[in-house]
Amino acid sequence: MKLIICSLLLLSISFQVFSQSNIKFPDAKPLPGHLVTNDSITIEEKSINLIDIKSHHWDTQKFNPFKDEIVKFPIQIKFNDSLYRTPILDSMVITSRYGWRNRRAHKGIDIDLITGDEVVSVLDGIVRFVRYNSGHGKTIIVRHYNGLETVYAHLSSYRVKVNDTVRRGQILGKGGATGNARGSHLHLIVNYKGIAINPEYLFDFTGTNKIRSNELWITKRWATPYLHTSKRRTKLELLSTRDEAIASLTKEKTTYIVKRGDTLSHISRRNNVSIRSICIANNIKSTSVLRVGQKLMLEM
User: Fold this and answer.
1) How many domains is the chain built from?
2) What is the pTM of this model?
3) Across-strand partners of 101?
């Protein structure tokens, strides 16, 4: 009898202590798409995609692990949000665009900064590459959940390591002039399976921080530097459906008749096409002498 009374007494005391404690049982599991907050880290349930984006060609040592991958155009790119974050915290000034530059392909855009300025991730993702790369200097590559990868080159220091999960706007490192850089700037590249896409086709860099469309189709026109010039932004033709992309695959060609005083540079600037594009379309060299009345095919 005494044993029973003691047991009941201990049970009563335990219940009172437990009821006064701060221990709380979690509520029911949130529905898909709801946010789960753990201290300062916010994770969406859709982050189960973390496993998916690391399942193919996840190589933390190679700049481009997709060299053996065959990519078919048009490419569909989807975004879950309508906004991105500019890669630097100050106002963004583009000093050189995606396109042909000094007879070489410039596969990204150059953004002015001062050495030590903080560089941030444009979208949520996982850090795949943090190391020195020939030409690009100190480089960070972030893979995003829609298959894109953003490359941040010429950095002076790192603030993240490989396999880190980062949020849009999270600091990755500090800008600089490492590698083959003439002065401090950020070289930003946007890749899909190793193919460099014109960043301005995807992101509006005029200060709105808007992604141009939740669905975009990429044709070779937007992934071929020689069809663009680094000196000015190419006139945009957004393709938001597969039908639009298929229809645009037929290149629109225009015949240009050379006038007195014309040079390839003048023709390129007036028609918003690169010199390289003119040379390839007409099987000529950049040093070729133009004749008055000569017909040139321009790929618009």
Assistant:
1) 2
2) 0.74
3) 104
